[in-house]
User: Which sequence fits this backbone?
């Protein structure tokens, strides 16, 4: 059998990793934290996609996962190096999320209170993913956002957290689960 394809390189054993372009940075670097959080979000989306939800939602989530990989590549790219060949991030994907949100919202009751996560596993995974998405957005906001693509990714993450909130509500409704509203005592 020819050359080995080992998953480990031992290059990160000293607590450093490489950005796209080869620049070595600490694994605690803000840029690594940002794309790592998006990677975490992507994993939670995989959990949602693995649940018993409508096939349409599974296909939308798969496209979102692909978009997040593109976002990760852009964030992992060293902004100080000349243009690198990176996949294009389509700004129209923000509109796709908005359309999906609007379609789901048409079938949901209007909200007058906060919703407490829980009661249905796919819905709960959506809420977990939503909170990780918000954290990913916050980590990205800590970076210098000099490139237009950074602003687009921030917008995408903002809309994605909205999508995940509405998807949590919709998957619960599809399963016949009543939402638990937070009704604070007076």
Assistant:
């Amino acid at each position: 059998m020819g050359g080995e394809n080992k998953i480990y390189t031992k290059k990160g054993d000293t607590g450093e990793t490489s950005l796209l372009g080869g620049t070595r940075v600490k694994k605690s670097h803000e840029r690594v934290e940002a794309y790592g959080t998006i990677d975490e979000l992507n994993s939670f989306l995989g959990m949602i996609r693995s649940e018993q939800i409508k096939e349409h939602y599974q296909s939308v989530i798969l496209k979102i996962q692909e978009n997040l990989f593109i976002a990760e590549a852009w964030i992992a790219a060293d902004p100080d190096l000349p243009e690198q060949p990176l996949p294009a991030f389509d700004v129209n994907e923000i509109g796709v999320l908005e359309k999906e949100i609007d379609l789901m919202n048409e079938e949901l009751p209007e909200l007058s209170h906060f919703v407490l996560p829980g009661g249905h596993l796919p819905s709960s995974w959506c809420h977990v993913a939503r909170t990780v998405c918000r954290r990913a957005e916050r980590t990205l906001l800590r970076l210098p956002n000099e490139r237009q693509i950074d602003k687009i990714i921030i917008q995408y993450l903002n809309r994605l957290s909205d999508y995940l909130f509405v998807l949590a509500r919709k998957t619960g409704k599809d399963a016949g689960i009543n939402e638990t509203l937070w009704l604070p005592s007076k």
User: Anything to note?
Assistant: The mean pLDDT is 87. The longest strand covers residues 16-18. The first helix runs from residue 30 to 50.
